[in-house]
Specification:
Elements lengths: L13 E2 L2 E2 L9 E3 L5 E4 L6 E4 L5 E3 L11 E4 L10 E8 L6 H15 L4 E9 L4 E13 L2 E16 L2 E15 H17 L1 E2 L4
Antiparallel strand pairs: 1-2, 3-4, 4-5, 5-13, 6-7, 7-8, 8-12, 9-10, 10-11, 11-12
Length: about 200
């Protein structure tokens, strides 16, 4: 099975092997097979995906991330912080640009991490399946010492294949200390490639 994660609505923190939340919303996941395939059924558009080797899912409330839909962690921790992936999602009007939602997410983050700095931002995908990625760097205290945290935030627009009038935007976030990031970003990119609406083949 895969790793562990955390989500937060502002300032990230960590307890030993646990990372605290890094996004908003609350959902449930269940295992579908023994091949690390999961479905998150409590976001507006249910999705399924596979976790990379070495990652493991944990109940969001076990890592104080009740507001996220899904949490995955990648042990071991470094300086008390475990790399994590979180997923949230909300119904949206298709006319709302992803850049606006990304701006709003950054502002929410700055309420708990005022020094959060936006790095590169790229729009990807198509008009039917839009996507946006942005990198954010901020500091957090671990054992009273400031450390640099990096997030790669991905926003994906997705229609419900069972009801195409329903359109949701998923926010999928990788969080890791700066010195961990290069070790886990490849896993995160592979993970993104497996995300699809539940039941899609």
């Amino acid at each position: 099975m895969g790793g562990e994660a955390g989500g937060y609505r502002g300032q990230p923190a960590a307890d030993d092997e646990k990372s605290r939340p890094v996004c908003p919303n609350t959902l449930v996941n269940k295992h579908l097979t023994e091949e690390r395939e999961h479905v998150v059924a409590t976001i507006p558009v249910p999705i399924e995906f596979s976790l990379p080797e070495g990652w493991r899912s944990v109940p969001p409330d076990a890592v104080n991330a009740e507001e996220v839909a899904f949490v995955a962690l990648r042990p071991p921790s470094l300086k008390g912080f475990t790399p994590n992936i979180t997923i949230t999602g909300e119904l949206q009007d298709r006319g709302v640009p992803l850049s606006q939602l990304a701006d709003e997410a950054l502002e929410r983050l700055r309420r708990g991490a005022p020094d959060a700095q936006l790095g590169r931002r790229n729009e990807v995908g198509s008009a039917d399946n839009p996507g946006l990625t942005q990198a954010v760097r901020m500091s957090l205290l671990l054992d009273d010492k400031p450390e640099q945290l990096v997030q790669l935030q991905v926003f994906l627009g997705m229609r419900d294949i069972r009801d195409e009038s329903r359109y949701a935007v998923l926010q999928i976030v990788l969080s890791a200390l700066a010195e961990q990031f290069s070790q886990v970003v490849g896993d995160f990119q592979n993970f993104l490639s497996t995300i699809r609406p539940e039941g899609a083949r």
